[in-house]
Amino acid sequence: MSDSQSEMPSMALPCLERDFYARPTLDVARDLLGRHLVHEINGERLVGRIVETEAYGGIFDTACHVAKGRTPRNDVMFGPPGHAYIYLIYGIYNMLNIITERDGEPGGVLIRAITPVEGETTMIAHRGGKRGRELANGPGKLTRAMNITLATFNRHDVCTGEKLWVEPGIAVDDAHIIAGPRIGIDYAEPKDRDAPWRLRVDPNFLK
User: Fold this and answer.
1) Residue 184, pLDDT above cutoff 70
2) CA dihedral angle for residue 184, residue 187, residue 190, residue 192, rounded to 10 degrees
């Protein structure tokens, strides 16, 4: 996608509703691919197409934050689906997750990468001039590009269509989805380390 294409305004659509997120986590992780993550800042829409996700499956998934129990940090994962769970790694990188499953049954999807659809110039400025593949090809990069922080959006309801939400975007069929092991979970048990719960859109699909 060229820079000029990514600056073309997208048509605003209703945000995804709670029923979308109130489903098995892996299904939501798959179906978020191709959707549009939107952050509206002072009337400007920053929009990124979700191209990579990771599923985290609750108390029986040793890679998931809730595997060792409920804490003030992960409490939001036990709440209603369709809320943001944001945490910091290395004290500086904001990681955006969206809660899934049913109220009281924890699960979440980490948004790992986006490609710009709208507001790319502002995203580049947020990233200190980084552009192209380096702009938002990691979870900490995309939150910085879109100015999504723990202080602002942890526990935010993404089903309200206010400030931060997800729009329908485009459909991605199974033939264009690449599945593989999740990243950075060496602490998890082998069965969870090897689970193909990292999902990516085939780059050729977007060309």
Assistant:
1) yes
2) -60
Segment 75-120, tens digit of pLDDT: 999 999 999 999 999 989 999 999 999 999 999 999 999 999 999 9
User: Can you name the CATH fold of 3-203?
Assistant: 3-methyladenine DNA Glycosylase; Chain A (3.10.300)
Torsion of CA 69, 90, 29, 200, to 10 degrees: -150
> Dihedral of CA 15/156/195/201: which sign?
positive
User: What residues pair up with 56 in beta bridges, in sequence order?
Assistant: 108
Task: Give the C-alpha distances (Å, rounded to integers) separating 48 from 37, 77, 189, 194.
Answer: 5, 24, 33, 28
The pTM assigned to this predicted structure is 0.92
> Using CA atoms, how far apart are residues 127 and 170, in angstroms rounded to an integer?
26
- What mean pLDDT do residues 9-17 have? 73
In the chain, where are the structural domains located? 3-203
Nearest to 205 by CA among 176, 181, 180: 176
**Residues forming beta bridges with residue 53, ordered by sequence position:** 111, 199
